[in-house]
Amino acid sequence: MSAYEEFWTIVCDHAAIFYLMLVAVTVMGVLNLAAMVLGDQSEGAFVVSVMVFAILGVTWVGLAVVLRHCNRL
What we know:
With 73 residues, the protein is mainly alpha-helical. The protein has one domain (3-72). It has helices at residues 3-13, 15-38, 43-72. Helix 2 (15-38) packs antiparallel against helix 3. The two termini are 15 Å apart. 1% of the residues are buried. The mean pLDDT is 92. The chain crosses the membrane at residues 16-38, 44-67. Keywords: Membrane, Transmembrane, Transmembrane helix.
């Protein structure tokens, strides 16, 4: 077994944890959106909220890529 296959075997053995992380990141995104809509947004708070969306988006895409790869195996 190559190192590539061994890596994905180990990662895919923990796919349930990645699903839980994906749900948690999605919930954090919804809560951030609710905070943006319901709260008073100053310019600084708006910038922080957009940065949080960027971080959550990159994390969400990374988790989705891992889970998509694990479903193909």
